[in-house]
From TrEMBL:
Name of the protein this chain belongs to: Septum-promoting GTP-binding protein 1
SUPFAM superfamilies xref list: P-loop containing nucleoside triphosphate hydrolases (SSF52540)
Domain of life: Eukaryota
Name of one Pfam family that matches: Ras
Organism of this sequence: Galdieria yellowstonensis
Gene3D superfamilies from the UniProt entry: P-loop containing nucleotide triphosphate hydrolases
Length: 229
């Protein structure tokens, strides 16, 4: 299982002097229940490593990563909010000026998906304009579940994604699946670029479904890529 992602550490960086580059800060918040893998995803994206013993987040963590697209320097400012109830007080800080909110749940614990509803409600009281994304984590564990259970979880998460008008992405920080792609999708959505990541609608594979109002009536989403086998 591999992440064959775009090369965001591209050489474009060297083609432009610092003065020629424009910098944009993209503040992104990762939100969801404790233990779903928020810190792991952030660390994997920013530092490229997965550490099982990563310490539990107290309050708010934040990390930055620069990526270069032509003469643009994009700074992802990623805020990872401790999921414990006590830290709900940190939400206003994490969500002010945030342009993308990644709602995260653990694909192997259904309750964490149910709880996204409450996280969404909370988050929206502090930030109404940020673009939402729905991410199911620990895809590596999910694929070991019985097929029927996988199907149920896929259906439920699609339902949530449609209700939130959010792209749906299944990821694994431990197996480097869709970690880079998630941030690529965020950029593409924010700047209204034509997304160059391939969607995946196949159950049993790491889903990557962009929210499309035209095809999001519940049945058509499954059809587009399954014919390719
Ligand atoms: N199998 C698996 N475990 C993961 C993955 N991501 C995180 N974990 C584990 O899940 C636990 C919680 O992760 P953490 O990032 O601290 O979650 P947080 O509380 O949401 O920040 C840790 O034991 C991680 O090692 C993943 O993609 N696959
Ligand atoms: Mg954490």
């Amino acid at each position: 299982m591999q992440d064959n992602d775009w090369s965001e550490e591209s050489n474009d960086k060297h083609l432009y002097s610092k003065e020629q580059r424009n910098n944009i800060v993209v503040k992104t918040a990762l939100i969801g229940d404790p233990f779903v893998g928020k810190t792991s995803l952030m660390v994997k994206y920013v530092e490229g490593k997965f550490d099982e013993d990563y310490i539990q987040t107290l309050g708010v963590n934040f990390m930055e990563k620069n990526i270069y697209v032509k003469n643009l320097e994009i700074t992802f400012s990623i805020w990872d909010v401790g999921g414990q109830k006590d830290f709900v007080t940190m939400l206003p800080l994490a969500l002010s000026d945030t342009v993308a909110i990644v709602f995260m749940f653990d694909l192997t614990r259904k309750i964490t998906l149910q709880n996204v509803k409450e996280w969404y409600r909370q988050a929206r009281t502090y930030n109404r304009s940020a673009l939402p994304f729905l991410v199911g984590t620990k895809f590596d564990g999910f694929v070991t579940l019985p097929k029927e259970e996988q199907i149920t979880i896929v259906e439920q998460s699609r339902k949530f994604a449609r209700a939130m008008k959010a792209p749906l992405i299944f990821s694994s920080a431990s197996h480097s699946i869709n970690v880079q792609k998630l941030f690529k999708v965020i950029l593409a959505k924010l700047f209204d670029l034509r997304v160059s990541v391939e969607e995946n609608h196949n159950i049993g594979e790491p889903l990557l479904e962009l929210y499309n109002p035209l095809t999001s009536n519940g049945t058509t989403v499954a059809s587009s890529s399954s014919s390719t086998g």
